[in-house]
Amino acid sequence: MALQVEVLQETFQQIKENTDEFAISFYENLFHDYPQIQPLFARTNMTEQHKHLVRALMLTIENIRDAETVNDALTQLGARHVQYGALKEYYPEFCAALLKTFELYLGENWTAEVKQAWVEAFAAISQIMLEGAEKIA
Ligand code: HEM
User: Fold this and answer.
1) What is the CATH number of the domain that holds 98?
2) Which ligand 1 atom is at minimum distance from the Cα of 80?
3) Is 11 inside any structural domain?
4) Is the residue at 3 inside a domain?
5) How confident is the model at residue 1 (pLDDT cuts 50, 70, 90)?
6) What is the per-residue pLDDT across 106-119, written as a single tens digit (0 to 9) for each?
């Protein structure tokens, strides 16, 4: 899949200005829209988790042209998610909450083109993570 790398990197800059608020807002959206996911985080240090999520997204987007590095990191991340209880059907919900939060943060820069770029990026990220999950299943 040919991802819109420039669009992704450019728009992610805006999120990077507010990473703490972005992460807090993301998990609020996730747990509000998909309450079935909240118990998975019952024993998670959410302050640390906010940093983990943002760092993983940042590493992915900044290294997106280095397919091998990104693939390896996401495959391993997906494999670890099996023990977190991240079922396959939760991935679209997780991505929907990410898109919703991006929309909130990008405001008028959230155009149809930008939305499409992120929809495709999250689909690709989920696919690689799920391949990693299947490998150890
Ligand atoms: C775009 C996809 C996702 C990304 C980039 C992502 C990223 C991360 C990262 C970086 C961690 C920190 C721990 C580690 O590195 O192994 C983590 C932990 C976690 N993730 Fe995800 N995740 C994604 C999707 C999901 C989904 C779909 C679920 C399930 C609904 C989920 C549930 C969890 C849980 C429960 C933890 C906490 C583990 C703990 O308590 O230590 N994640 N995630």
Assistant:
1) 1.10.490.10
2) 16
3) no
4) no
5) low
6) 999 999 999 999 99
